[in-house]
Amino acid sequence: MHHILTLNSGSSSIKFALFAVNGTPVEKVRGQVEGLGSMPRLKAQTGQSVLADEVLDEARVNDHASGLAAVLGFLQAHFAADTIAAVGHRIVHGGPDYTEPVVLDDARLAELEEFRPLAPLHQPHNISGVRAAKKAFPNAVQVGCFDTAFHRAHPWVNDTYALPRELYDQGVRRYGFHGLSYEYVENRLHEVAPHHADGRVIVTHLGNGSSMCAIQGGQSVGSSMGFTALDGLPMGTRCGQLDPGVVLYMMSELGMSAEEIEDVLYRRSGLKGLSGISHDMRLLEAAGTPEALQAIDYFVYRIRREIGAMIAILSGLDALVFCGGIGEHAVRIRERICQGFDWIGIELDETRNRHGSTVISSDRSRVRVFVIPTNEEAMIASHTARLMAEASSPAIG
Ligand SMILES: Nc1ncnc2c1ncn2[C@@H]1O[C@H](COP(=O)(O)OP(=O)(O)O)[C@@H](O)[C@H]1O
Ligand SMILES: CC(=O)OP(=O)(O)O
Ligand SMILES: [Mg+2]
């Protein structure tokens, strides 16, 4: 039996999963290293049974590289390396040209490495994940699946900034991210509510990184993230939409270096910056301090603002979908986001919302509201399996 391993280095965790492939990939094991930088923990499960749940030594596992080594060590101890035929990687930035998954060779890796400055919380870890997986599983094919690919066919007005043309030509464009998550959720929506999936859909991915996507006919037509994964909604530690004048002011008046500004915008802003407590929504909801409440107020406010903008892009709305750690679990946040949208036809059902049912709107609600747990790993495995099948089938014609 062949397996596909998937690796997904997010900003706050490394998620992995192992799929058996015999046609459609079937998930066998999933796990993650979380708490990188504070209490690192490795968890793995197969179905409902726990395979591993261990607190890792903070002195040994303190960054993405050592977190990844812990993941690979766990996998090598439990699964024979030669059964892993392919490793599918989430690569956050694919720039303008990577519009679909590809087999990663050295030339492509070098090209993708150039996008490091455009995704400093992700791209370096994605690339070193590929290098580490190559070493651990030298006979496996390495496949890259891009967060940006889902948005590449979006309309030009969503692709550009109003900057001089030459900057667009040099690649300064709006790319949009979380594409693997949007693709998965859109596919699931087709299964649970095909009629709505064909209509005007907004998907809100609210995790440690948060973004939104307007989808029509299965195609991304608007997204909140831009050139980098900083733009749009406020996030765990990222600022979201910002007047570029603030960056100029930091440079010229506050004398901050590019590194210092990067640190503020990517690591010290968002929920963490506003609350002064944490990037973690659970801790903010529990803390209830005035600053934590304001951080949550700002988060909800910006999401509601973006929903308004996307309704305008779509000329209406048929389905609103929540996903990501916050979108899937934070009952009160979902309720607050939906409040006051009765004019567009959104009415939540309190009981359904509290239970996190798939449909959380009332039967009267004109817009259907869904909670669909995202699964970037399943999307990566499916792309990887397809690429492997294409590679092994004889060319036609
Ligand atoms: N029950 C919950 N209530 C509120 N927030 C939650 C809950 N469970 C998880 N979260 C939040 O989800 C976020 C992490 O989302 P996730 O999608 O797992 O992150 P990542 O972007 O690293 O993949 C954190 O802010 C966490 O607090
Ligand atoms: C693109 C992005 O923000 O990803 P994540 O949510 O995994 O940090
Ligand atoms: Mg994520």
How would you describe the overall organization of this protein?
Catalyzes the formation of acetyl phosphate from acetate and ATP. Can also catalyze the reverse reaction. The record marks 178, 238 as: Transition state stabilizer. Its EC number is 2.7.2.1. It catalyses: acetate + ATP = acetyl phosphate + ADP. With 397 residues, the chain is of the alpha/beta class. It folds into two domains: 2-146, 2-Layer Sandwich (Nucleotidyltransferase, domain 5), CATH 3.30.420; 194-371, ATPase, nucleotide binding domain (Nucleotidyltransferase, domain 5, 2-Layer Sandwich). 40% of the residues lie in helices and 21% in strands. It has helices at residues 64-78, 106-113, 123-136, 156-159, 165-169, 179-192, 194-197, 244-252, 258-267, 270-275, 281-287, 290-314, 324-329, 331-338, 350-355, 376-392; strands at residues 2-9, 13-21, 26-34, 41-46, 49-55, 84-91, 102-103, 141-146, 200-206, 210-216, 219-223, 319-323, 368-371. Helix 1 runs parallel beside helix 3 (123-136). The protein is globular, with a radius of gyration of 21 Å. The structure holds adenosine-5'-diphosphate, acetylphosphate and magnesium ion (MG).
The backbone outline, from C-alpha atoms, is globular
Lateral arrangement of strands in the main beta sheet? 5-4-3-2-1-6-8-7
- Number of helical segments with 4 or more residues: 16
CATH level 1 name of the largest domain: Alpha Beta
- Termini separation: 31 Å
Low-confidence stretches: none
